Target: Phosphoglycolate phosphatase
Amino acid sequence: MITNRTARVLLLPRCRPVRCNRQLYRDFRSSHGVKERQSPPVDGLQANVSGTQLKIVEPTPSSLRPYSSIFHRPKEDHFSENVAKTLCPESFEELLPHIDTFIFDADGVLWLGDEVIPGSPRLIDFLVKNNKRVLMLTNNATKSRALIAEKIARLGYSPELNKDTVVNPAAVIADSLYRAGFAGYKKVYLIGSQGVRDEMDALGLEYFGHGPEPLDPSDERTYVHDVKMEDHTKVGAVVVGYEKHFNVSKLVKAANYLKQPHCLFLATNEDETCPSPDPNLIIPDAGPIVAAVRCASGREPLTIGKPNSPIFDFIRRRWNIDPERTMMIGDRTNTDVKFGRDHGMRTLLVLSGCHQIEDIMENHRNGLLDMVPDFIATCLGALLLPQRKN
Amino acid sequence: MITNRTARVLLLPRCRPVRCNRQLYRDFRSSHGVKERQSPPVDGLQANVSGTQLKIVEPTPSSLRPYSSIFHRPKEDHFSENVAKTLCPESFEELLPHIDTFIFDADGVLWLGDEVIPGSPRLIDFLVKNNKRVLMLTNNATKSRALIAEKIARLGYSPELNKDTVVNPAAVIADSLYRAGFAGYKKVYLIGSQGVRDEMDALGLEYFGHGPEPLDPSDERTYVHDVKMEDHTKVGAVVVGYEKHFNVSKLVKAANYLKQPHCLFLATNEDETCPSPDPNLIIPDAGPIVAAVRCASGREPLTIGKPNSPIFDFIRRRWNIDPERTMMIGDRTNTDVKFGRDHGMRTLLVLSGCHQIEDIMENHRNGLLDMVPDFIATCLGALLLPQRKN
Model:
């Protein structure tokens, strides 16, 4: 049941109408898969654990709904302004003098896949014109900052968002290892993509292990025994991120390098899935790969990306930001909002990406206040008055 | 410090001396890798999370000790007979009339790798002669029961231990799906090895997806998008166990079949590592693969193997055992002992495999009483008086 109050909030009555690409948003959300740890409570699904009596459940029209619609169905909550304030052009203008730095997540905030979110470039331009610092912070470590900056420019964003104002875990990992003295001294066993490789190259760090890994295709030996390991005294760290070539042979190597207590274990990020160009396809991100290495090695990684502290420390060190005068803007409560809250920043959730009002309400109900933003808005464009037509 | 009391227990003074292959045991234990979730507390290892200031730590003689010796160093605990009773030939004889069924784990109890544990075949013979039921229960789902039975015979065990008295998760999964009506009706997406395949073949179950999976070797596309999925309405279950060909393409497929709420998610077992012929090499088992699929799909599997209930239900149904008159004998507190305790059986931990007295004491200290056995013994042979020499 959508109450009058909920409906009012969803339509953002205090803001003037904003043209948002709703279909794009819907596709995007359904492409984000499911985060819940429990099997969904679908009528008739019977996996009786105590009796191990499995029953086949025919897909019904309801069980065939996309996952997102099952989990993101409108709740009967009354959305309350006491939970998170809705930002509109007027209230945003009041807030502006109190913020020096705006940190933007990318996917779901600035763009959706390869398409710009209408209104977002204009907000960045507005902030730059008002002498605000703008930074982009993404958990995507598969691309280097240089490649991400190319996309930013291609989509028509202000040149203030560029290679030097973009932060991702690839850059932070390379920086951390460089400052720890790895260059010319220790090697890194890498499960990772172009982003980490290029950022490490830029700092002269030596790494190995990435790329396609041959595996005996026969069934003669059940397990993978015949891995060629490098001298473990020279391997100072195992870095794990998303790599499409990840396989059991790489898992064996990572677990065995990590057997050495002096070998550091760094993970780029632990997002379970990433946005997919096909909204019907779940695309795993680094999370599942990190989970496998964690399980096999029995070691806990130092995870760099949001919502963790290493990437915040990098930002604070580089730009000397004052968290109280900084706003973190993202589309996910569990990464962006939690990251902002955990590090003393103001937080704004835009509804143009992954999480929605019902997710905020659920977090609030469950006492997960570090995943409840200070502010919400439909999208970045909703923070400005519409442009006058000439 | 080994106290007099500890020393007495370790030497099992109430039992007559038993010839145990101690070197074999030591190699075996060190091949089991590490289960702890935290990085080991090695002097000088600095991964300052709040400051992300990593420091290189040179391997020192102490940090180069094999992991097992770091974690399994003798504790200063006084081992108490109140925690677990030591079984010797006399006390075992007293216990015998109260037990009808003995369930044996395999690796570390009956054999170590490819070598029989001296004294174990004789105990099985003794029990068979005394009209006890003997069953073998292993979490190894990579081999079918028929192949496991071949090994049992090759190592000289009583023919009472055979294909029909062996239980493993492969057999239970096939049985469960068969009884659920999958045969000729629903297909199974399988990440698994010969064991699950052969057991499914035997019951006429249809499966697909196993074996080497091609992957575009180029770096042109970062993520794996181009997977060919079967009609999801015909896929009734995803079964995940150890398969050396597991890779990102299989991960994508498993996660996407599991997007359908009607698709069951079964895991053979979740052991992190398995015994390795090379004691210096960690060999991941099914656990890391299940962890990856769990993370990518957001679904919780029904895990069949010890210490979970599905495999117990299978045994109780097939042999109508009385748990109170059944003894579970194994070498691991977290699988064998927990399995026995959770299902109302008596439990015996033999010290000829993975876990030792200090592990029991640690579990006891941490209140993990479901991982503290009723009884301990150095090995199965220690339960019988030595054979008289002619």
